[in-house]
């Protein structure tokens, strides 16, 4: 169960991170400019004017991001962009149109539209404000297709943000003669020199360290470690019982000349096998949990998670290591048994 | 002319902080190729003596010499048991989850044989003991006499110089007892091994060329 919790929680947070990366990738965003302070998403909108003047910057888009209760049962990420944002160009409108200007209009990702049973022309009331659904779109990321898009000014009003934004997304100008790394390093240096209170983060890093992802990852690892610890205690108990029940068997092996280290290896191999089997079961249960999470409305919008091969391998390695660590004390105790004492044991 | 293989010098073994004395100063010499019975009543200390000679336990004081070399000073007891001693127990002590063929291979894991060689050797030993048709049976599928024959095959797995049998016929009927003793003495003469049998059965003690009688932790006669 510990492994299942680990797979489900860490898998979910990784999928979440992965979906963020897809958003940046599909829109062509290379750098995001954000506050330096953790959990502070308030950057003044006027910063955009400064960014536009920098020689390395080709396009600048302010954006607001908020996690909201769309209905009492469904929450989702709501994105606010200006209507002319390049971020919207990568979306495929499957029904209706894009929102215009600063009207109380919104677009629904196709998963969210299905969850809410809404189509263009319908009205959706969010936190007391009625919005007209003008389009349904398909995005490159589950976070988009499970999300809501509206004019940035509307989201600022809805979330009472004034003229604050979450971040600026930036496309850089080509820099002939510079490597990709040099171009990125140079751009960050120029942006941070012009705006010393902010930081310029490559989009690939931002996907992994935005506040929502960091929180999700920390929670996932924290909870998983507790679950893994409890799982390790279970394996220790199982192995201790196994050694206890097989005292006479260990005595026979010792009497026949088996050295202590061979007894230890035998018990540790069993503990590792137990960890592996537990890991495989946990992997399956974790995968099952992710499939369920991806289908219930409360979580479907955050990101559909599948388990990658490297994650499965990592999980199995962790499970085997836990098995070996948890089996160490029982193995050591088993190896210390005197053959005579063990053979006398009834 | 046989040479002295095992020597016990003033062996004392006590338990419970000295409150129980199983052996109270035992001296015994055993020659290579000898068949020795150790007899005595229950609790006399005969099994304790066998355990000390076989390196299953260490004496509280005194010394055991194997080929003139002190066990406590010069031998790793695990290696001593693995290379030089074969054990046969009253309760057989076969591992229930392994077949006869696998049980016989257990001691060989401390040797240098590969998996195929281990299997071939175990196969040959079991055939030698008349168990060719029982190779892949589990202990609970074998009769008591067959189990003891598997245990004897296992005791020969590493070609030891000494075979130690602790009440090897204790769980057998008279017919099987006679057969097992016949097998053990046949192995002793055929392989020129040293055979030490702990027994409380007078017939076995009487038929052994040498009988060491133990009483209250001391040698009574030998």
Q: What is the radius of gyration of chain A computed over CA atoms, rounded to a whole number of angstroms?
A: 27 Å
The SS-based structural class of chain B is alpha/beta
* Secondary-structure element order of chain B, N to C: EEEHEEHHEHHHEHEHEE
* Structural class assignment of chain A: alpha+beta
Spatial separation of the terminal alpha carbons of chain B: 20 Å
Question: What separation lies between the terminal Cα atoms of chain A?
Answer: 34 Å
Largest sheet of chain A: 10 strands, mixed
Order of helices and strands of chain A: HEEHEEEEHEEHEHEEHEHHHHHHH
Helix share bin of chain A: 40-55%
- Tell me the major beta sheet of chain B: 6 strands, mixed
Helicity level of chain B, as a percent range? 25-40%
Mass-distribution shape of chain A: elongated
| Main β-sheet, spatial strand arrangement of chain B | 6-7-8-3-9-10
> How many alpha or pi helices of chain B?
8
Task: Walk me through the structure.
The complex is a heterodimer of chains A (346) and B (222). With 346 residues, chain A is α+β, with helices and mostly antiparallel strands. Chain A is 54% helix and 20% strand. Chain A is built from 13 helices and twelve strands. In chain A, strands 1, 3, 4, 5, 6, 7, 8, 9, 11 and 12 form a ten-stranded mixed sheet that branches. In chain A, helix 1 (2-27) runs antiparallel to helix 7 (203-209) and helix 1 packs antiparallel against helix 12. The longest helix of chain A is centred in the middle third of the chain and has 35 residues, at 211-245. The two termini of chain A are 34 Å apart. By secondary structure, chain B is of the alpha/beta class. In chain B, 34% of the residues lie in helices and 28% in strands. Chain B has helices at 46-53, 71-74, 77-84, 100-105, 115-128, 144-155, 174-190, 202-207; strands at residues 4-15, 20-31, 35-39, 61-66, 69-70, 85-89, 162-166, 194-199, 210-215, 218-221. In chain B, the strands form two sheets. Chain B has a six-stranded mixed sheet, with helices on both faces. A four-stranded antiparallel sheet of chain B has the order 2-1-4-5. In chain B, helix 6 (144-155) packs parallel to helix 7. The radius of gyration of chain B is 17 Å and the shape is globular. The A-B interface holds A 248-249, 252-260, 262, 338-340, 343 and B 51, 56-57, 76, 78-79, 81-83, 85, 87, 89, 93, 95, 106-107, 109-110, 154, 158.
């Amino acid at each position: 169960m510990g492994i299942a919790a680990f797979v489900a929680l860490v898998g979910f947070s990784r999928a979440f991170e992965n979906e963020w990366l897809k958003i940046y990738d599909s829109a062509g965003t290379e750098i995001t400019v954000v506050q330096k302070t953790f959990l502070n998403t308030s950057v003044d909108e006027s910063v955009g004017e400064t960014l536009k003047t920098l020689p390395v910057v080709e396009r600048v888009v302010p954006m607001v991001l908020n996690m909201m209760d769309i209905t009492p049962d469904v929450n989702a990420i709501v994105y606010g962009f200006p209507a002319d944002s390049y971020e919207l160009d990568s979306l495929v409108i499957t029904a209706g149109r894009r929102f215009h200007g600063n009207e109380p209009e919104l677009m629904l990702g196709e998963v969210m539209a299905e969850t809410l049973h809404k189509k263009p022309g319908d009205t959706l009331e969010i936190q007391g404000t009625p919005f007209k659904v003008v389009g349904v779109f398909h995005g490159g990321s589950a976070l988009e297709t499970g999300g809501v898009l509206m004019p940035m000014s509307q989201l600022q009003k809805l979330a009472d943000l004034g003229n604050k934004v979450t971040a600026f997304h930036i496309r850089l100008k080509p820099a002939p003669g510079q490597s990709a790394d040099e171009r990125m390093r140079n751009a960050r240096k120029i942006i941070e020199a012009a705006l010393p209170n902010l930081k310029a983060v490559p989009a690939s890093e931002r996907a992994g360290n935005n506040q929502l992802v960091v929180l999700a990852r920390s929670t996932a690892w924290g909870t998983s470690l507790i679950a893994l610890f409890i799982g390790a205690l279970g394996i220790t108990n199982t192995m201790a019982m196994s050694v206890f029940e097989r005292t006479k068997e260990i005595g026979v092996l010792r009497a026949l000349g088996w050295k202590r280290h061979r007894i230890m290896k035998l018990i540790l191999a069993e503990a590792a096998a137990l960890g592996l089997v537990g890991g495989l079961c946990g992997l399956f249960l974790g995968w099952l949990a992710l499939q369920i999470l991806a289908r219930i409305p409360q979580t479907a919008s955050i990101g559909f998670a599948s388990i990658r091969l490297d994650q499965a391998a990592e999980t199995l390695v962790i499970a085997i290591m836990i098995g070996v660590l948890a089996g160490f004390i029982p193995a050591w105790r088993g190896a210390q048994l005197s053959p005579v004492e063990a053979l006398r044991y009834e | 002319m046989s040479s002295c293989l095992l020597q016990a010098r003033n062996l004392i073994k006590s338990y419970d902080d000295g409150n129980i004395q199983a052996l109270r100063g035992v001296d015994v010499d055993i020659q290579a190729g000898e068949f020795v019975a150790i007899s005595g009543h229950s609790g006399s200390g005969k099994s304790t003596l066998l355990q000390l000679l076989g390196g299953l336990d260490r004496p509280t004081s005194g010394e055991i010499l194997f080929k003139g070399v002190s066990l406590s000073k010069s031998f790793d007891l695990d290696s001593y048991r693995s290379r030089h001693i074969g054990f046969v127990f009253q309760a057989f002590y076969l591992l229930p989850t392994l077949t006869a063929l696998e049980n016989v291979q257990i001691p060989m894991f401390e040797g240098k044989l590969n998996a195929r060689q281990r299997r071939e050797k175990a196969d040959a030993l079991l055939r030698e003991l008349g168990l060719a048709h029982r190779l892949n049976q589990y202990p609970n599928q074998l009769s008591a006499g067959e189990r003891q024959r598997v245990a004897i095959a296992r005791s020969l797995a590493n070609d030891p110089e000494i075979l130690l049998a602790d009440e090897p016929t204790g769980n057998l009927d008279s017919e099987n007892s006679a057969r097992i003793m016949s097998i053990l003495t046949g192995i002793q003469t055929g392989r020129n091994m040293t055979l030490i049998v702990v027994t409380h059965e007078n017939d076995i003690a009487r038929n052994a060329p040498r009988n060491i009688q133990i009483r209250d932790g001391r040698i009574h006669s030998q």
